[in-house]
Specification:
heterodimer, A: 199 residues, Protocatechuate 3,4-Dioxygenase, subunit A, nine-stranded mixed beta sheet, two-stranded antiparallel sheet, globular, B: 242 residues, mainly beta, five-stranded mixed beta sheet, four-stranded mixed beta sheet, 24% strand
Chain lengths: 199, 242
Amino acid sequence: MVQPLDIHQETPSQTAGPYVHIGLMPSFAGIPDIYENQLGESPIADGAKGEVIEIVGSIYDGTGWAMRDALFESWQADASGKFAGQDGADPSVSGYCRFAADGETGEYTLKTVKPGSIAGRGGQVHAPHISLWIVARGINIGLQTRIYFEDEDNSTDPLLNRIEQRQRVDTLIAKKTADGKYRFDVRLQGEGETVFLDI
Amino acid sequence: MADLGPLIPRNRDIHPVPYDPGYKTSVARSPSQPLLSMESGASEETGPTFGHGTFGALDNNLIMNFSKGAAPAIGERILMHGKVLDERGRGVPNTLVEIWQANAGGRYRHKKDGYLAPLDPNFGGCGRTLTDDEGNYQFLTIRPGAYPWPNRGNDWRPMHIHISVFGHSFGQRLITQMYFQGDPLIDMCPIAATIKNRSQLDRLVAPLDMSNSRPLDFLAYKFDIVLRGRRQTMFENKLEGM
């Protein structure tokens, strides 16, 4: 026998299922009035500093079908690389957003400010990125990934540099389609499978 | 801000497998490549906060919130309550807990649910609350019905309530489901069966809690939730090659 470790195990995940919108985005499910406000409607308020950008994309299953029922949450720093609650953070940036794939087209849109680069432990600097968490029917534990930007210097980012198969780095980089507009698609399986994270 | 240390890496063995042919939708929706594992940083260790002022008085009362207090939902009245902890056993205060569920007949109020059981005009099916200073939460609701779903020939979901929890960092984000003690459908459910370790699945089954049921009013079920904790930061060094 040994001394017991005084540590609990995390509660196991279960899929969010097809009706996740009822709980997290009730207006999307057709229940617009149940709460006085809906959480995570926008990551920015008027007056947010930095470049306002719009990211559009779809999430594809292993057959290439754009999923209609996925729900996303994003979390990011402000334009100076500070997260809400940190000293000096922009009070107009909550940094948090909930959005869903469109029920007809499968496309999502995220309007936000472009984040700054982030200081890490030991002097590391992370290139500007938005953390993404994805749930849907058939996804048994929420998927984590990141959106980086093709018009930023990503060369010293510690996460991107950990990806051995260099062609897969591209799966985490949003493509610029116009001024302030980007496209970021997620592929769950197969060719071009997005790099998912365990962080 | 003080460095609370990195998140304890997730133990994937206690979680459901991503790919499970018994749950057909998971087949094309599970990554086939391994996940990229890294130590957490600010992006995972920070997270959104929600103020008490955001919430309405009926937000955690699913029996009354859809009708704005006008008329109660139909069904067996229950109190769902418990504590949100981290892996160190500490209560997680002031964190958002959201739930959603089918009505007593097993029907969801969602534009995509066409099950023949009727909608309840006084039941919406969602609730939200913040944990108190010790991490405790509670919801008043009705027991959801079991319902059939298109998977194999004749699959039924056991009675369950979906739960979404935040913690204080984005890397703690978790969605799970609460099942009810004694429901025979748990053992036949392909979604419950995505958790391969039976003792882990048992952790999602809420016991009947007569000590917190109110006579002539409601039964109680207890459901505690454990979120990822933090590693201690003493002897923190820069990793080789990072």
